[in-house]
Amino acid sequence: MDDLNFKCNNPGSVKFGNFINYYQFHPPDERISLLPTNIWDHLLLKDKVDILDVGCNAGDLTKTLDDFFTNQIGLKTLNVLGVDIDPLLIQRAQEKFQNINFRCMDIMSDDWAIGNNSCYDIIFCFSITMWIHLNNGDEGLKTFLKRMCDLSEILVIEPQPWKCYKNALKRYRLGKGDFPKFKELQIRQNVEQEIEVLISNNGFKKLTETSRTKWGRKLLIFRKTL
C-alpha cells in the first residue's frame, strides 16, 4: 500500500509501496467509512466467510476490516488473511494482531499460493495495482487481476490514477533509479478504466463505486457473475 502525497513528512522511496509508517498518514477508518453496508447480506447465510487483504502492510486496515464485518455486518465466523511482500511489515502485523492470520508472500511469483482456499468470499486490494503495474508491466497487471478474479467472489479494488504513477516515478528516481517496466507501459492515462474493463472481462460485474478519498482514490466493488 502506498501514499505519495504526505503533506507533513516525506514518505521516502520504496519499490513495492511498502511504506513503513503508512497508517500514520491514512488511518484505516477513512477507507472503512466508504464501504457500503447493504451488499453483504448474502454472506450472513454462510457458515464461514473467508476474506483476503492483499498488500496488507502492517495489518491495521486488515484488523479494521475484521471489525467491520464482525460488528457492523454481523458475520459470525470470519477467517481473515493479510498478505504482503515485505517480511518486516508482516512481522509487525503478526505482533500487533495475533487473532488474524498474516503471511509474507509475493503474489506475482510463479509458485505463489494463498492458504488452502480455492476461492475467497471477498478480496481487498487497496492501492496496490500501481505497484504491480510498475514492477511487472501491462502483462503483469493483467495476470494479477486474473488471479484475483479467479480467487474471489467479490473483489474490492482501489486503483491508483495515472498521476500517482508520475509521483512514484519521481520519488523512486531520486533514491533508487527507475522502474524498468515504466517506459513499456501501454496502459497509462486511462488506467482506472482499463482496470475496470480487465476485471469485467474476467467474468465480474461492478456492483458499485464509492466517492473518492481525500487522496483522490475510489473503491470499485465487483461481484462474479453466475
UniProtKB/TrEMBL annotation:
CDD domains: AdoMet_MTases
Molecular function GO terms recorded: O-methyltransferase activity; RNA methyltransferase activity
PANTHER family cross-referenced by the UniProt entry: BICOID-INTERACTING PROTEIN RELATED (PTHR12315), RNA 5'-MONOPHOSPHATE METHYLTRANSFERASE (PTHR12315:SF1)
Stated family: Belongs to the methyltransferase superfamily.
GO BP annotations listed: methylation
Record EC number: 2.1.1.-
Domain Bin3-type SAM: 1-226
UniProt keywords, alphabetically: Methyltransferase, S-adenosyl-L-methionine, Transferase
Name of the protein this chain belongs to: RNA methyltransferase
Domain of life: Eukaryota
Annotated Gene3D superfamilies: Vaccinia Virus protein VP39 (3.40.50.150)
Organism (species): Hypothenemus hampei
